[in-house]
Amino acid sequence: MAEAHQAVAFQFTITPEGIDLHLSYQALSQIYLSGLRSWKKRISRIKVSDSNECEKIIISHVIHRTHKFCLKLLLSYHRWMFELHGRISTKTKVWATLVRLLSSRKPLLYSYQTSLPHLPVPSIKDTLERYLESVKPLLDVDGFQRMTRLAAEFEKSLGNRLQKYLKLKALWATNYVSDWWEEYVYLRSRSPIMVNSNYYGMDFLYVTPTSTQAARAGNTITALFLYRRKSRIPGTVIPLCAAQCERMFNTTRTPGEETDVLQHWQDSEFVAVYHRGRYFRLWVYRAGRLLSPREIQYQIQRILDDPSPPSPGEDKLGALTAGNRTPWAQMRKQFFSSGVNKRSLDCIEKAAFFVTLDDQEEGMMGENPSVNLDRYAKSLLHGKCYDRWFDKSFSVVVYKNGKNGLNAEHSWADAPIVAHLWEFTLATDAFHLGYTADGNCKGEIEHSLPPPQRLSWDIPLQVSESLAVAQALADDVDCHVFPFREFGKGRIKKMKLSPDSFVQLALQLAYYRDRGTFCLTYEASMTRLFREGRTETVRSSSNESCAFVLALEAGEDREHCHKLLRKAAEKHQNLYRLAMTGSGIDRHLFCLYVVSKYLGVESPFLKEVLSEPWRLSTSQTPVQQMELFDLVNHPEFISLGGGFGPVADDGYGVSYIIMGEEMINFHVSCKHSCTETDSHKFGSQISQAMMDLMTLLNPDFKEATKANPDKQS
């Protein structure tokens, strides 16, 4: 999703001396010493005086290691993902049974970490073949021949040399991609993280559990702390890597002049709160006890009622986190390294998370709900550019009318991790904690609670430069959010198609109608089947999808278009499976490029590949805990999902969430400064493409829709 913005044309500050024989020796030496220390620790654990007891411990340790090894071998099998529904092979059935037998019935969050396989390094040949296949429909004959020639030259010369370094890294590193991805795609970027990298999540579409701002904040904060205390994961047959969860709370991205740093602290017992230009520290624990939702509401109300004005420079201080990174790093070093400013900044950065009590009202409301939804999205994406702390792992926003949402920093984790947190928060708020009849939180109040602490500042600097950069970026963003109500995954699955493939093909059709051409398309896929896995790119614009779109637009007969549609959907599913199982294209090429920069060698092929723009960047927000939402009895509690800013200056960002059986919510973004893009126009193209695809699959659908006009959005 937003990561695609950082993955295009990024710049390195690595010298040719970044890797040489001496450094390689040092790295190998450190790996050896690390392993030696590890074995010393293991041996020390079994040092006991009784020889019989020692023998029991050794046997237990061997059994444990054997169990982990067997489970790791089982989890390295991924052919199950490529088998058709209802046609599962005997081999896969046996495999699934063995996984269940060896898996814990109540696994802890990190129970499976050491059993997950390492991400494999694909062969150079396979990656290049898949790459050339992906760009063939996007290039003319001469352009494709040129890229084919560059790829062949790369494979014969530099490619194999770079591949050796990657394979060596894969041997000693837990994941050959993730650390470089985090550093070079995220932390080394010097442009604003607001809009370009951070993303947002929304509240329920149709309902707001309470209109009392302090009460909604009380339940939301409580639910988030309850999530932090969770130590177990939902029961799933296939374990996923949980490493990204480690830095969810108490984490801040701190700016540096050349590269930022992710800092994570021990669990803190307070949150940082912003309201009308003032910053507060709000303790949510007292003598080891988590305050009740009603007590947190009481404390939040104290902040809302506080009449004190902001200190000079305090109100727009957050703009420093919204502008370019290097100026923020320089100001942080000069003005926030000691004294009262450092103490107050520490309170924000070490807080569990950040909370903004917004004085605006947002949501799908009023006489023009569509326009208000778009404004709601922009508010969560960038706010006023100074009333969010964009460096925090996530910032919760609670509006005056009780609506809420969040803004998440991207480097520490990907959207599915934050989506899991936010699903739990919304469900716990509405269905578990609940409210009294008058809209207040439940629970008792200890009135002797000390009031929230105002943070003090001595700010001689001006933030006007950072604010100007951020404001220009925010003003340029064009957002459109709309619920597609005509049908959802239920009808798509009846047509025996993958809902995600269906939506991706609709996006291809919509883009072609909007721009008259095809483009490189980014769809985010996860690689959490592997240890410390993050994401891989699915190149959704394929030969098959382009052939289908061209045939449909040329008015070819329905049966032919129908076959091409199904062929394109099958291709997309296969591309998605390859990406999830470690056989994607882009992370491999990215790492080869990093190695080439370390070695100080130029590759015309890699340079061109890594500078190609993603004019259509897409991401599905997964619904992971449907059991928390009783949509049968409470169909109005539907999440809007979330979105992100545009990736290319002349392109679109599209996020979508498939909610229940009958709705798909879309978030579209682009830039006003580009005369060729328009989020509302593209949203209409998406809706029409969805309708046209369903009509192609089921001609009776169009007549049924005409007979039920209330279904139209």
From TrEMBL:
The active site is at residue 410. Residues 119-687 form the Choline/carnitine acyltransferase domain. Residues 1-47 form the Carnitine O-palmitoyltransferase N-terminal domain. The keyword Transferase applies. It is an enzyme of class 2 (transferase). Pfam families: Carn_acyltransf (PF00755), CPT_N (PF16484). This is carnitine O-palmitoyltransferase. It comes from Cyprinus carpio carpio. The lineage of its organism: Eukaryota, Metazoa, Chordata, Craniata, Vertebrata.
